[in-house]
Specification:
By secondary structure, the protein is an alpha+beta fold. The protein has helices spanning 34-38, 93-99, 117-120, 140-148, 158-166, 219-222, 234-248, and strands spanning 5-9, 12-22, 55-64, 67-71, 109-111, 124-125, 128-129, 135-137, 179-181, 184-188, 197-203, 206-210, 254-256, 268-271, 274-277.
Length: 278
């Protein structure tokens, strides 16, 4: 089992269950070369020993009261994927989830920040919902976009989404700021996909943002024009990212994005005319 990482935000406990680690982000951000990244000294914790940017693919389990909420569901086993390391995987995600204390039947809600294949893969297995007792939440605009243009919007999403739709488990998020559970609200953050959402956790004096894929790597603090190739609308994604940076800058709110390694929450600090992550 990969290292189990936890974080507490007031009464909300967050547990990371990792599926895999991606050792090089250049397939998402072209400019993320070893040479370019080496010029940003504070980026060290997000880089591998060989200098490449590291990404994680994982699910976050949020526990608040009696609620158990899974955020994003990774790539999934036994599914065709265009990336060789992801194709027809035979990973130990189910075993790791259960070892962490989260049987699929114990999850009451699944939130997909968006409907790309590395966020919906475990929604269904063998044509049936993987989390049989869970309602599946995601931005309504993503579902509409997929239905209107399935071939242009990640056609590999189709089988898993159809399985949960056939089981009547889908409940799209229609309103910006919708409450998911006590202290957990969904924030519309479009650009990466039309219906992409972040999650705001607010409990007691603590506040945190789960940024989803609105940010791919914190290098985008210093290099805002480095776009993720998977952004559906790059210009809108950039505006959304800038809005999030401004909201976070200089505050005590911590944040983490969906693919940051090691559940690495941090704050956006300002210094010498630049922002950086700490």
């Amino acid at each position: 089992m990969k290292e189990l990482l936890r974080w507490q935000v007031g009464d909300v406990r967050i547990t990371r269950v990792q599926e895999l680690e991606a050792p090089d982000l250049r397939f998402v951000i072209r400019e993320a070369t070893v040479e370019n990244l080496a010029e940003i000294d504070w980026l060290g914790p997000f880089r591998a020993p060989n200098g490449h940017a590291v990404a994680s693919v994982h699910t976050l389990i949020l526990e608040v009261g009696e609620r158990r909420i899974a955020v994003d569901t990774c790539i999934g086993n036994d599914k065709p994927r265009p990336i060789p390391g992801w194709n027809m995987m035979k990973g130990a995600f189910l075993e790791d989830l259960e070892k962490a204390g989260f049987a699929p039947t114990s999850i009451d809600t699944v939130i997909c920040t968006h409907l790309h294949i590395d966020h919906v893969g475990w929604l269904a297995q063998d044509g049936k919902p993987f989390f049989p007792n869970a309602v599946v939440r995601f931005g309504a605009a993503d579902w509409g976009h997929y239905q209107d243009n399935p071939e242009g919007n990640d056609p590999l999403t189709g089988p898993v989404m159809q399985a949960v739709a056939d089981a009547d488990r889908i409940q799209p998020i229609d309103a910006d700021g919708e409450t998911i559970a006590p202290g957990i609200t969904a924030r519309f953050a479009p650009g990466h996909t039309p219906g992409h959402h972040c999650l705001v956790l607010s409990s007691g004096r603590d506040r945190a943002l789960l940024l989803g894929d609105s940010v791919t790597c914190p290098v985008q603090l210093e290099e805002p024009d480095w776009q993720a190739m998977s952004d559906v609308d790059a210009a809108l994604a950039s505006r959304t990212r800038e809005s999030l940076w401004r909201e976070l800058e200089g505050t005590d709110t911590v944040a983490v994005a969906a693919h940051f390694p090691d559940l690495r929450f941090g704050r956006v600090l300002a210094g010498q005319g630049k922002r950086y992550w700490n």
